[in-house]
Amino acid sequence: MTMTKTSTAGERLEMRGITITFPGVKALTSVDFEVEPGRAHALIGANGAGKSTLMKVLAGAYTHYTGEIKVGGKPVTIRSPKDAKAQGIQVVYQEVDTALIPNLSVGENIMLEQTVSGMKGRHFIGWRKLHQAAAAVLQRLQVQIPTKKLVQELTLAEKQMVLIARSVILECRFLVLDEPTAPLSHSETEQLFRLIRMLKQDGVGIIFISHRLPELYEICEDITIMRDGERVANGSLEKMEQQQVVEYMLGARLEGQFPNRVPKIGVHGFEARHIRDRDKVNDVTLRVHKGEIVGIGGLVGAGKTELCRALFGASPSATGEIYVGGKKLKLGSPHAAVQGGIALVPEERRREGVFVEESVVTNLTVAGLSRFTGFGSWLSRSKEKGAAAEMIRSLGVKTPNDQAKVRNLSGGNQQKIAIGKWLLVDADVYIFDEPTKGVDVGAKRDIYELVAALADRGKCILYASSEMSEMMGITDRIYVMYDGAVAKELHTAETNEEEMMLYSTGGVIE
Hints:
The protein has helices at 51-58, 81-86, 106-110, 112-118, 127-140, 156-169, 186-201, 213-219, 242-250, 304-311, 334-339, 349-353, 360-365, 381-395, 411-423, 441-456, 468-474, 497-504, and strands at residues 13-22, 25-35, 40-45, 66-71, 74-76, 89-92, 174-178, 205-209, 222-227, 230-236, 268-277, 281-289, 293-297, 319-324, 327-329, 342-345, 429-433, 460-464, 477-482, 485-491. It is an alpha/beta fold. Strands 6-7-8-3-9-10 form a 6-stranded mixed sheet, with helices on both faces. It has a 6-stranded mixed sheet with strand order 16-17-18-13-19-20, with helices on both faces. Helix 16 links the parallel strand 17 and strand 18. Mean pLDDT is 86; it is low at 1-9.
């Protein structure tokens, strides 16, 4: 079986003068982009810069663009996903679950397109050959996943591998990876990079979208930087310093990533005792003072997300006691948590944090509709729109208007909306689960400022992140988790990233 179609030196991918407009906004303005076979090309920019739009043009998702696309110097027509695949262009999006069928096996998902096309005029599938072919491509990629295992039983990293295997078996020549490392642990990222290097050796051109700048220097040779729908820089990555990359992205110098704050620590405002949730959370006890930012640190898979969900009443199997302002809450649902003054900004914003098919104004006001109702529970549209407008302004949300669907906004703007809806509720306890995942350095700074402002207002903040630098930059105190339990409580001013990493990996200091 042909695993990949090895590119020749002349088969470069070129996009020339790509321009596309949506109602109320010009998303791309005469953008040039090119990818060499056998090389990894970093495509970066602040959220809303246009990089995802450019890749959707390449993938055939948008058809109303102007400009030209060439492969090997010859013009090609890409006006549908089928056209893109015919040119060997494959895309692995950040939300991998949307591209896989969870109740089908690994083998069926890898061979999905061949199975569907092979069924035309036939009424049976050769299951043995299907799994043999899927196993062969996984073996070629050195990925150890049983082909008969259901996709719904896989980790996020394994799902990515399945999507890459599907791309390879479809004779991929150019592979787009959109924020591929955002949900991955360090070891999983290393496995992905090994796979990318293997594909490059086979002549596949890689387009790598990421906000983690150190990763770009590890895996990419070339870079294109976009800002406000235009290409602002392009060239060899090794000739560009990280600070220069950030300046191109933002159009200005980034002065101080984290806010300078003098914590005003008050009395105990939140306490959780002996929280357990099956084998994911193991007897966690923690406390937060008013005005304090407390980190929940640890590597991917340490149990941070599961703990956040348990504290918000989103896990029916969780047990333990929770107190807000000294009052014990009976948490059996997120609704009860909200009533008790707790808000959660979840890690998976598109699936759990926002309603992607609804408008910006609906998303911002949905958690606090009682503020905008009057006599007879009638909703005041003017009050609702006024509150949303103020929140859009204060958060710096980039949107054509307040009626734009959230799914059309960038990841950073979606995250601002996921946070903004709780600011209108005015909760007592804010739980942030990986709030800066998949957002650019400028949007990260905005989010840090929001978190700090909430603490300054006397709110209790729990901030879960696998980024050690974030823990050091934004928190006052840190609970480091390992294997579902708190391995160590640290005062941020008295620790460092090395000590955090030690406890995150199960180590101890004698």
